[in-house]
Design goal:
By secondary structure, this protein is α+β, with helices and mostly antiparallel strands. It has 3 domains: about 140 residues, no CATH class; about 110 residues, Nucleotidyltransferase, domain 5, CATH 3.30.420; about 110 residues, no CATH class. The chain is about 45% helix and about 20% strand. It is built from 16 helices and 9 strands. A 9-stranded mixed β-sheet has the order 3-2-1-4-5-9-8-7-6, sandwiched between helices. Strand 2 and strand 3 form a beta hairpin. Helix 5 packs across helix 14.
């Protein structure tokens, strides 16, 4: 395409999206509609009518014409909505995932967290339509979403997680999932097909296994063995193995926001006594316990203590602690999707439009997160304000190559 139209990173990855509309009745390219929506969201507009209002402004149209032809003028609001309703969500999601594969090189033992989020505004009680539930994968080395897929409800995460794993290239990484994802088939897929490791929280859905692990650590606690290992670790300032039991311990201390938080990670790798579990769970190498103790500087009498249990295929406490600690990052991403991009407020409900819009917002999340050279200290919200008013900065975001960090 001449005159620089349809050129750049965005069009390299999404310019070939298939248009299933009837030829001869199409006035506006599907790529144009997608580009307009992506740019509108980059500039801080998360609802269809606001995106269209932004695009309708003369200055916006002048800027858009640098990238797309708009031969028949600006698409109407209804045309934009309709375009997102016919956009093949699987193809669009695959394009996004392939873009991330091409753009990012994940380091060895990178933690990749999988977790789901319900888009509450997508529920339509009148039509008895359930809210859309998206399962996302976040790599912690870059803090970016590397893939997502949808389910119709939270209970279907068990079927959605394998579908997402099928699309990810995460060899050598450590996968973390909430307890719901602790399923034999999922663990087997991570180890054999993804060639990755796992650290997964233990809760009620695997009650027998959880009780075994909890009772094991409680017995060591009652005999004073855990305290002894901790004391040795503190004295030598290192991770310590607990004799023949192959237990390592690692501690962290964080201060800030009015509290002091201590986390103690225990990881046992001598599992000869867990005959059934080692047979049932692929590459089960260790079991872990995390004790989280919090003191509040404003009220020294207020203290909290939480204990969580895990299974994993990693072989040392350092990797276990890193995986268990960083899993919260995907919750932070979900918070950002709500606060910055209005995920829960948006009431897009028609067809696949809600899923496609959610994918665009995760694309924009990555773009804003990855821009660290011009405004490295600005929040995502502030970067969006700059993008809305500074077309040169908007150009940078549109053409951002994630390889250039």
């Amino acid at each position: 395409m001449s005159n620089g139209l349809y050129q750049g990173k965005f069009f390299d990855h999404f310019g070939g999206i298939k248009d299933t509309r009837q030829e001869g009745k199409v006035w506006h390219r599907l790529t144009d509609i997608l580009f307009i929506v992506v740019c509108g969201i980059i500039c801080g507009y998360d609802e269809w009518d606001l995106i269209h209002e932004w695009a309708s402004a003369p200055m916006s149209q002048k800027w858009l014409n640098k990238y797309i032809a708009l031969a028949n003028g600006l698409p109407s609001l209804s045309t934009i909505k309709r375009g997102f309703g016919i956009l093949d969500s699987n193809e669009f999601s695959t394009c996004f995932i392939e873009w991330m594969k091409d753009s990012l090189e994940l380091p060895d033992k990178d933690v990749v967290s999988l977790d789901g989020k319900t888009l509450r505004g997508s529920k339509d009680s009148a039509k008895e339509t359930k809210a859309l539930h998206m399962v996302s994968a976040l790599c912690h080395s870059h803090g970016l979403v590397i893939g997502q897929t949808k389910t119709d409800e939270k209970s279907n995460e068990i079927t959605a997680i394998p579908e997402l794993l099928d699309q990810l290239f995460i060899e050598g990484c450590i996968v973390t999932i909430d307890a719901m994802g602790l399923q034999k088939k999922i663990v087997k897929k991570i180890v054999h097909e993804n060639k990755a490791d796992y650290v997964i929280n233990l809760k009620g859905n695997q009650e027998t296994l959880r009780q075994e692990v909890e009772e094991y650590f409680k017995e060591l606690e009652q005999t004073g063995e855990l305290e002894n290992i901790q004391r040795q670790s503190a004295h030598k300032n290192a991770n310590i193995f607990g004799g023949n039991k192959g237990i390592q311990v690692h501690s962290t201390l964080d201060k800030g926001h009015g509290r002091i938080e201590k986390r103690t990670y225990f990881y046992a790798t001598d599992l000869t006594w867990m005959v059934d579990a080692k047979r049932d769970w692929e590459k089960l190498t260790g079991i872990g316990m995390v004790v989280r103790e919090v003191e509040y500087t404003a009220n020294l009498d207020k203290k909290t203590k939480e204990t969580a249990y895990y299974v994993g295929s990693v072989n040392n406490v350092t990797d276990f602690a890193k995986a268990a600690r960083t899993h919260w990052g995907i919750e932070s991403m979900h918070w950002s999707m709500d606060v910055v991009f209005g995920d829960d407020r948006n009431q897009t409900r028609a067809g696949v439009a809600a899923q496609n819009l959610a994918t665009v917002k995760r694309m924009v999340f990555n773009t804003l997160k990855n821009e660290t050279s011009i405004h490295p200290k600005k929040s995502k919200n502030k970067k969006r304000i700059v993008a809305a008013t500074d077309t040169s900065y908007r150009d940078v975001l549109i053409n951002l190559n994630l390889k250039e960090r």
